[in-house]
Amino acid sequence: MVLPSSFLRLFSLPGFRLRDSEHRHTSRVRHAMLSLLQVHGGHGVQRVAQRVRFAGDLEALWYLRQDMMCAISEIDGEAAARRQLRPINSMFKGRLPETMGPRRHQRFNM
Question: What are residue 21's phi and psi, to 5 degrees?
């Protein structure tokens, strides 16, 4: 008996493999975010964790980073929160449209 997943792999549909890869990456990002939040306690952190659990895609997780930053900053301070989120931020590199990346602030010297 041939399993459906084996059958699809045999034909290797181009769009199917791409979607599966994106889904796996989104799951890894979600897991990393939840692992970081799990270390911290409190009502605010639990609310953010709930939103991370039910985020629909990588873009939604991208926007939830700011909520994570705020929740963790209240407990550990901003510098520590930035340090803790750095590995998660790197997981988004190359996965989102360029316009959604971190903004570079330019300072004007006059």
Answer: -65, -45
